[in-house]
Each structure stands twice: as structure tokens, then as C-alpha cells.
């Protein structure tokens, strides 16, 4: 599970265009065969992304996502500087951990932190098995 935060916590991903750009780059990483996404959620100032890594280069995958996203956003936001903070946080799930539980918590993150009161209020998320995500 990876979390990348925008530089200065600027809410870039609140903008629907920039959120679409981030979603496109997540999908591009999967099409490249680098990973298999299980779930992701776009918050105004960060992305939480749960995936199975299929290549031995986590740092390069995340850096590619961030650089491609930043390049595309700067193409629209003239004069924009840094888009992402340096680095990212990651957590490897152990085999005995419940994947479905992690997906539910990740997708429900907007409910816990404020941008949404119910899941249907926040549309910038995806889960491989959405039927496992309860509507709140």
C-alpha cells in the first residue's frame, strides 16, 4: 500500500481534470504490467493506492506515476511548481492480513477524514471488488 502526498498539501486532486489525470496514470502503470491494482482513492492532497507489485522496483513505479502526473498537471496549470512531495510511504501487507479489510478501510478513508459523509459523495475511488465495499 502506497501513499503519495502533494507538495505543501496543495489540493490538486480536488480538481476533476487533475483527478482524471491521476486515475489515467494509475491505469497506465497497470497496463504496463508493473502492478495489479486492488484499490485506490484520490483525496484532494494525496493518493492512497493498494496494489500487488509485479516488478522489483517499487520506487521507480511510484516515481514514474508521480512524474507523469506532475508533467500532465503542469501542462494545464501554467506556472505550477512542484506537484508532489519527495518520496512516499509504503506498507507491505503480510500474507495473513485480510486484503478485503484493507480495501474497505482504504476506500472509506474519505469518510474518516472529511471530504465525504457517505461513500457515494466521494467518487474518486476504485476497487477491484466493489461489492466488498459497504455503502455508508
Structural features, described:
With about 140 residues, this protein is of the alpha+beta class. The protein has one domain (about 1-130): 2-Layer Sandwich (Alpha-Beta Plaits). Helix content is about 35%, strand content about 20%. The protein has a five-stranded antiparallel beta sheet, with helices on both faces. A hairpin with a 2-residue loop joins strand 2 and strand 3.
- Name of the CATH first level: Alpha Beta
% residues in beta strands: 15-25%
Largest sheet: 5 strands, antiparallel
Report the principal-axis shape.
globular
Count of β-strands: 5
CATH homologous superfamily designation:
Transposase IS200-like
Task: Please identify, by name, the CATH architecture.
Answer: 2-Layer Sandwich
- Name the poorly predicted regions: none
H/I helix tally:
4
Order of helices and strands: EHEEHEHHE
The rounded Rg comes to 14 Å
Summarize the structure.
This protein is an alpha+beta fold. It is built from four helices and five strands.
Please supply descriptive tags for the structure shown above.
136 residues, alpha+beta, Alpha-Beta Plaits, 5-stranded antiparallel beta sheet, 4 helices, 5 strands, 36% helix, 19% strand
Chain-wise SSE layout:
Blueprint: E1 2-5, H1 16-31, E2 35-43, E3 46-53, H2 58-76, E4 89-90, H3 99-107, H4 109-113, E5 125-127
Antiparallel strand pairs: 1-3, 1-4, 2-3, 2-5
Helix pairs in contact: 1-2
Amino acid at each position: 500500500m502506497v501513499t503519495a502526498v502533494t507538495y505543501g498539501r496543495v489540493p490538486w486532486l480536488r480538481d476533476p481534470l487533475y483527478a482524471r489525470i491521476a486515475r489515467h496514470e494509475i491505469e497506465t502503470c497497470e497496463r504496463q504490467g508493473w502492478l495489479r491494482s486492488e484499490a485506490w482513492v484520490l483525496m484532494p492532497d494525496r493518493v492512497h493506492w493498494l496494489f500487488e507489485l509485479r516488478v522489483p522496483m517499487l520506487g521507480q513505479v511510484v516515481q514514474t506515476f508521480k512524474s507523469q502526473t506532475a508533467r500532465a498537471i503542469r501542462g494545464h496549470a501554467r506556472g505550477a511548481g512542484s506537484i508532489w512531495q519527495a518520496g512516499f510511504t509504503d506498507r507491505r501487507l503480510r500474507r495473513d492480513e485480510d486484503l478485503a479489510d484493507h480495501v474497505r478501510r482504504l476506500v472509506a478513508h474519505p469518510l474518516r477524514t472529511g471530504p465525504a459523509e457517505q461513500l457515494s459523495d466521494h467518487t474518486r475511488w476504485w476497487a477491484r471488488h466493489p461489492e466488498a465495499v459497504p455503502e455508508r
